[in-house]
Amino acid sequence: MKKIGILILFAFFVVQIQAQQKTTKASGAVLKFNETSYNFKKIYFKSDGTHNFKFVNAGKEPLLLSRPRSSCGCTVPTWPKAPILPGDSGVVKVTYNTHIIGRFNKTVTVYSNMQKPVVLHIRGEVIPRPKPLLPVKQADKEVSPVKK
Fold it and tell me: What is the pLDDT of residues 130-142, one digit of tens each?
């Protein structure tokens, strides 16, 4: 009977410690993005494929971003290296290589000292630039071909 009482007491302390750890983590840094997805729709070949994902540290401790991971080499993220203080904001800039024609759907996973990583999505379609139209001379329009 004494052993059961000790086991119950031990289980009670374990539950209390876990609850305290969850409360401590929840009051830490909180990475909150204004948006986590952006659609470029149709963009021209060799145009600017950059989008800024704005965020704020909504927690009570400084936020530290570690190296974000992109889903491929055609997507390059840049991020603030310094700690983001509580209430301060920042930007994760994601640039897609628009030298590749076609549809794209890419992700960037942002890791921080927060519990869970945040996944940012970009999508769209790179289309060829339209060919410039050559000007037509007025004289060429008025002349009709001679029939024989």
Answer: 888 777 666 655 5
Mean pLDDT over 50-62 rounds to 96
Report yes or no: 61 and 86 within 8 Å, Cβ to Cβ. Answer: yes
Domain with 98 in it: what CATH number?
A: 2.60.40.10
Measure Cα distances from 74 to 28, 69, 100, 125, 129 in Å: 33, 12, 9, 14, 20
Instruction: Provide the domain count of the chain.
Output: 1
In a domain? residue 84: yes
In a domain, 145, yes or no: no
User: CB under 8 Å to 104, separation ≥6 — which residues?
Assistant: 74, 96, 122, 123, 124, 125, 126
Q: How confident is the model at residue 24 (pLDDT cuts 50, 70, 90)?
A: very low
